[in-house]
C-alpha cells in the first residue's frame, strides 16, 4: 500500500510489530514508540477507513 501526503503534513502510522515503513523525502522529525495502546491504534485504523 502506498500513500502520498502533502508537504509538512503531520500524521501517525500505527502498525504491527515487525512491519516495515518506508518514507521517501525529507522529514523534520520522526518518532518510533516501543508500545502503543492497542485500542487507540484500532480506533485510528477504523476511523481512517470509515472516513475515506
From TrEMBL:
Annotated keywords: Membrane, Transmembrane, Transmembrane helix
Membrane spanning residue stretches: 31-51
Source superkingdom: Eukaryota
InterPro entries: Clp1_N, Clp1_N_sf
UniProt keyword Transmembrane helix present: yes
Domain Clp1 N-terminal residues, every copy: 2-35
A UniProt-annotated Pfam family: CLP1_N
Protein's name in the database: Uncharacterized protein MANES_17G021000
Organism: Rhizophora mucronata
Phylogenetic placement of the source organism: Eukaryota, Viridiplantae, Streptophyta, Embryophyta, Tracheophyta
